[in-house]
Amino acid sequence: MTNPHVKQSNKLLTTGVVGALIAAVCCFTPLLVIGLTAAGFSALVGGIDYVVFPIMFASLGLVAYALYQRSGGVGFKPKPVIAALVIGFSAVLLLLEFKFAIRISVAAIALVIVYGFYLRSAQTRAAQQ
Q1: Do residues 28 and 102 make contact, with C-beta atoms less than 8 angstroms apart?
Q2: How deeply is 7 buried, as exposed, middle or buried, from its count of CB atoms within 10 A (0-12, 13-18, 19+)?
Q3: Backbone angles phi, psi at 116, to 5 degrees
Q4: pLDDT truncated to tens, each residue of the chain (129 aa)?
Q5: Helix ranges, 1-129 (H)
């Protein structure tokens, strides 16, 4: 029998990764622009980045929270920190008018990866005690 927390964290992790990948593809390729233009919604093309980048950061936040749940809840509860970082990354990107969009996005991805490694090492230390 599987643990319901593990099932939920796997579902959150899958949702977050898929959401981040779709948002990244829509941000960094003209795929969404071509699709919207072909569907007759070319007026919406100018404001795509204002929606897609925050969605990508929120999806990365979901991945970070899923990693926390998967680790068994090691350490403090990260919900407020994750929410603040999602809002912060989105605000910085909007304030800089997307000038460093790739760098900021890579920094957000790197932060999630580092957090995942931190949780794994904290889980290992907790298991050894």
Answers
A1: yes
A2: exposed
A3: -60, -45
A4: 456 777 888 899 999 999 999 988 887 778 888 888 888 888 878 888 898 999 999 999 999 999 999 988 888 899 999 999 999 999 999 999 889 999 999 999 999 999 999 999 998 888 887
A5: 4-28, 31-38, 49-70, 79-95, 101-128
